Each structure stands twice: as structure tokens, then as C-alpha cells.
Amino acid sequence: WQWPTTEAFFDAYYYIPATEFTVQQTMAPTAFAWGYLAAVDENLTSLPVIGTNGNDNFVGTNRNDSINGAAGDDVLDGGIGADQLVGGEGDDILIGGYGADVLAGGAGRDRFVFSGTFGSDQITDFQGNGVDQIDLAHFKVTFPQLLGVMTQQGANASIDLTGFGGGTITVHNFSTDDFVEADFMGLS
Question: Which among 72, 61, 44 has a CA at the least distance from the CA of 97?
Fold first, then answer.
């Protein structure tokens, strides 16, 4: 009998059982109960991560990451790349970073943070009336200015912050008419 190769063993996803864990650009050699992971291959194109029921803090790589915080009040930072961030249950903070990111807060009061030229990002499950919030503190924009850069694209609301040094945010299944000032943080 022979142990499965690392390549085959890690083909689907990684499960790291810890109450707090930060995924950074490189991963140091790590000992596990069933063996030893010496390094992460440079050719890895994405790193799927699933959190715990605790309060997790995940920072993605410069690749296309898939990070699921599961339960707990999580902080998920996609870093660079076209990332998929899912907060899960709890009051989560999702930071897409650079690249075209897809963000889903899940249950709870979630905050979606945008700064810099973040790209063309999507929020798939925004709850209005101040339940979830979009943090735009970096852009020094007022609510009336924000209303001026919103358009309705079918069932989705679009917020174009390119004139303020940012990117675009598409909020799925949400009307621009339903946005209230309490849906945003950090406005001027």
C-alpha cells in the first residue's frame, strides 16, 4: 500500500482546523497529525480555505483565492486576485482587495470594505436598511455624490467609483432606489 501523493491528496480543498489562522503569501513548513507539508507549490493557482466556527482571520494571496469563513465573526481579506469570499454565519468583514472579487456575507450584519482601485467587484447577498454595510471611507464621497454614480442594471444595482479612484461594485438583486445612507460607512 502507498500513501496518496500530495498533489492528489490536496486536489479538492484544504481544511485547517484552528480557531484563528492567517493565510499569507507563503506558507512555512507545517506539521499535521497525519504527516508533514513542506511547502505550497508555486504553480498553485488558487487556495481554497474553509474556516471554523470561531472568529477567523484570513488573508489571501496574489492568486485567485476562495475563502469561506464558516460560522463566527470573521475577517476575510482576499488580497490580490479574483477572489471569492464567503463570510457565512456571524458578523463578518469582507475585504475584496485588488481584482474582480465576488463577496457574500451570509447571515449576520456584514461589512464590505472597498479601497483603492479595487476592480469590478460583486456583492451577491446584500441586506439593506443598515443590516449590511458597504465601507467606502477610503473614497471621501458623500451620500448625494454616491447616488449620482449609481445605476440600475436589470435586477442589480451598480456603483461606479472610478471617478473617485476606485472601481465598480455590482450589488446583486438590489435596487438603487432601496439604498439608504445607513447602508454605507465612512461617507464624508
Answer: 61
Per-run averaged pLDDT (10 residues), the chain, 188 residues:
42 42 43 41 62 89 90 93 94 94 97 92 97 97 98 98 96 98 97
Has residue 171 been placed in a domain? yes
Q: What is the pLDDT of residue 60?
A: 86
Residue 15 lies in a domain: no
Has residue 16 been placed in a domain? Answer: no
Total of domains in the chain:
1
Distance CA 115, CA 97 (A): 7
Q: Report yes or no on 13 lying in a domain.
A: no
Among 106, 144, 136, which Cα is nearest to 124's?
Answer: 106
Q: Find the domain containing 152 and state its range.
A: 58-188
Nearest Cα neighbor of 139 from 166, 175, 121, 171 is 166
Single pTM value for the model: 0.78
Extended strands (E) in 6-110: 14-15, 30-32, 35-37, 48-50, 57-59, 66-68, 75-77, 84-86, 93-95, 102-104
